[in-house]
Amino acid sequence: MLQNWLKIAFINYKKNWLSTIINLFGLTIGLTGFMLILMHWNDEESFERWNPKKENIYAFQTHNKAENTYGNNISYPMAELAVKVIPEVKDYVLFNGSGMGYKMTTKTKTVYQGEGMSASESFFNFFPFKLVSGSYKDALKGDKVMALSTKAAKNLFGKTNVAGETVKINNKSFVVTAVYELPEANSQIKPDFIITPFEQMKGDKDQWGNFNYGCFFLLKPGTDVEALQQKFYDKIFLYRAKISAQGAGVTPEKYLELYGPTGSLFTPIDAIKLHAKASWFGVGDFKTMMILFTLSVLIVILSAINFINLKTAQASQRAKEIGVRKAIGSTKSNLVLQFLLETFLICLASYLLSLALTELLLPSFNKFYDKQIVMNDWHIYFYSFAMVMAVTFISGLIPATYLANFKAIETLKGNFARSKHGIWLRNGILTLQLIISSFFIIGGLIVNNQVKYMMNKDLGFSGKQVFLINFSENDAKPWLKYERIKNEMRKIEGVADVSYGEAVPGSGRFSNSNMDYMDKSIFAQHGSMDYNYLQFMDVKLKKGRWLNPNLASDTIANVMVNEAFVNKFGWTDDQALKNEVRPGFDNKPYHIVGIVKDFNILNPRRAVDPIIFFHYRETDWKRYNVYNIQLKIKPDDIDGTVKRIKAYWQKNVEPGYPFDSYFIDKKFAESFVKYQKQQTLFTILNAMVLMVALLGLFALSSLMIEQKLKDVAIRKTLGASDGTLVFGLTKQFLWITLTAVLISMPISYYLMNEWLKDFDYRIDMPVFPFILSLISLLILTFAVVSIKAYQATKVNLVKYLKYE
């Protein structure tokens, strides 16, 4: 019986070769997209899974209810108190630096070693890397010890068995206490060396408001995380507020309401890459991942719809076969199983083709996402094959049940082709397919418009030809370094101007704190800078004046703010220039002397945050945070000027260190890459959807028009023109297309409006994509169907009328 079923299946595949190819092509494309996105998602979810303690390690995040914002920092005494007063918390590890680099000296050589981390002494209790040399006990206890990865040990000593050896950094000797091997699995935490921020932690031991550290907590197994978050508020946040509120003259609850944090969030370590609200190591975009996955599933659904449509449209060709088989005793269940087998064979062939195509496209996909994904995870094969079985069941069962329900008497009489049985099913499924196609067209155009809007928006500054050089971390007094070299670097041929600013567009590096005025408080970013920085970046002055190097008060208590700062307090510009604020980083009041227009420094999707600008000498601790020098380069010889700057830097400023530099406009442009990739993927998916849908439409229209050839012959004999016949044959499909687009419009409006809500700078919902979707789908439908319709008008009249 099985052999007979297979023989019938291959006869029908050959007979309907066009629809067979279209089904194979559509399912192969859909399954390939599904597997690529699934591998991308699986790769993002796989970070930190190597860690044997992952079930009990949680990343700590703060929440500020008033601003509805999340932070990734904690103060040292808060973490220490949590272990003492909350039974569920067993241990903590703090870190305040990653990606660090130093010039290190051993007995035989001096080399630069990068990718380091600054972490507290419990680090190896949380990250039990494979120990190669030394011991983890007290490995990070004290300020004169360090641990090395095998890679760093080979770089410094040429071997890995180096526990007990000495390394000098900035004339300070460190003893290597342990050498470890980093895991090959995905991890955001892969330091090549680890040192302890001993001096900083010593100074921060009683500083409850210095949120300088990222933190992981080790919890007891079975901890109720929601209950823990409430305990953190009651026992940590309120305790800190009681201490800090004493000098502020407010209740602890009011203090938290003003300054936060008002809540905490604990995310499992193996979920931070994709699901954390904020992370020291950067967070992924789960929402975009879900959108891409949903779109890939939609393409598979479109392919399944093609299958259902084509199978039901071929019903008349197999009606007599079914009638004969029923007449000789075949049961309905046998017929259903036979048709499901035919569907499974097509799906299985598509699955095998999609595996080959996925392997072929994977290198380009890896390059697009900067990944190293390989097809060695059984989950990919399991879930993709499960999708194949689902498609087989859904797209096979509907036409199988439909065909198996034919009545033997009706089909043997040969009048099935003239009945209206099943037309509603094909039309309904075709409508669903066109609804999905219309959504892709509308969504693709809106995504394209939004990305263009962000890229063309006036950002409020000019980073053109502004060249930034980051300082290494080897200077005890970095502001003196800046002041020493800025006049010398002005003398380099091709350098037009020099400045320094903390709030650099595109850097992602900033700090913030509360700003108080009377009984109101807001959070604002810090913009310590040199006097000329805002003019240097072509920022526009809105009201008041610039900071002036000739006025001593401008390095004591005068500041500038941006429009967002003024608006957040609800002031007018004139009111702002008469007011003083008390920033959380200082005990003295600061007077506002100027207001600048907003300029975007973080991300084109985000609204500009309040920023306070002040000279770096105005506040003692900000002098120690001077971390760059910026040069405006003349346009006539940019490459030559950069070479001269690099040569001067490596000879006179930081010999032996990497030249860490970039052009600000190019760096800021990297913040668009994510959205440009979304635009590219949406365009590719859009093309795939249209291709699958139009091929399916062509095959379906071909089969349906073939069923009407006798009607065409009769009407042509009675004098109907070719144009009338073509329009008559395409009219039904045009009505279906019109209905589908009208249904898709409110759905597309809602979904794309939800997507646009993620952008503070967003376009108004445009009308053009909806109109273009309607017009383009009507034109494409007419073009695809009319090709077959025109061929039908050339029918051989004798062939179809000889029995009438």
What does this 3D model show about the protein?
The protein is an alpha+beta fold. The protein has three domains: 335 residues, no CATH class; 133 residues, no CATH class; 206 residues, no CATH class. Helix content is 51%, strand content 17%. The strands form three sheets. A six-stranded mixed barrel has the order 3-4-9-6-8-7. The protein has a six-stranded mixed beta barrel with strand order 14-15-20-17-19-18. Strand 18 and strand 19 form a beta hairpin. The model has no long low-confidence stretch (mean pLDDT 83). This is Putative ABC transport system permease protein. InterPro entries: ABC3_permease_C, MacB_PCD, Macrolide_Exporter_MacB. It is a multi-pass membrane protein.
Which properties best describe this structure?
alpha+beta; 3 domains; 27 helices; 17% strand; Macrolide_Exporter_MacB; cell membrane; MacB_PCD
- Biggest sheet features: 6 strands, mixed, barrel
Q: If helices are DSSP runs of H or I spanning 4 or more residues, what is the number of helices?
A: 27
* Helix-strand makeup class: alpha+beta
Helix content: 40-55%
Radius of gyration: 34 Å
Taken together, the total number of domains comes to: 3
Strand arrangement within the widest β-sheet reads: 3-4-9-6-8-7
Shape: elongated
Q: Which segments are poorly predicted (pLDDT under 50) over 5 or more consecutive residues?
A: none
Distance between the termini: 40 Å
